[in-house]
Design brief:
alpha+beta; two-stranded antiparallel sheet; Alpha-Beta Plaits
Length: about 160
């Protein structure tokens, strides 16, 4: 069994229920079990123009630690299917979403393909990933970026509230 970490997020169609349903869907993946689940975190939207912010609902984010026999691309395909089952649409980059499932880390695998980059290339900059990841794996290091605890202390994260 391999260790993997998955970020979950939603800001449409009852986001708390969407993330909780995604946790349950992860439990049902073949040859996979959820080891730890973070708390839920409410996160103000980022990456939008100032005039859009009042129209974009807050996100609910969380992270899960998995043990899996699925290979990285198989796990990614399973995560994309969970998103599809939830009704995920991709009308434009960073669009509001019913569910987002990102494969953050898979063992010590480093890979870059057109479909998957491991470790996730922006996770070290995102408080909505680092804070729940720190909650369930405080000693974890992100390759080429260092310990999560150090990354959290080096950055100021605003607009993130643990529920």
């Amino acid at each position: 069994m391999k260790q993997a970490f998955v970020a979950l997020g939603s800001n449409l169609a009852n986001p708390i229920s969407q993330v909780e349903s995604a946790f349950a869907a992860l439990e049902n993946l073949p040859n996979t079990r959820v080891i730890k689940k973070s708390s839920l975190y409410k996160t103000a939207p980022i990456g939008y123009e100032a005039e859009q912010l009042n129209q974009i609902p807050d996100f609910i984010n969380a992270v899960a630690e998995l043990e899996t026999d699925l290979a990285p691309l198989e796990l990614l395909d399973a995560l994309l299917e969970i998103e599809n089952q939830a009704g995920r649409e991709r009308p434009f980059p960073n669009a509001p979403r019913v569910l987002d499932c990102d494969l953050l880390l898979y063992e010590n695998v480093s890979m870059e393909s057109t479909k998957l980059i491991l470790p996730h290339p922006r996770m070290h900059q995102r408080g909505f990933v680092l804070l729940p990841l720190f909650e369930i794996a405080a000693q974890l290091s992100i390759p080429n970026h260092g310990k999560i605890a150090t990354l959290i202390h080096e950055q100021q994260f605003t607009g993130i509230t643990k529920l």
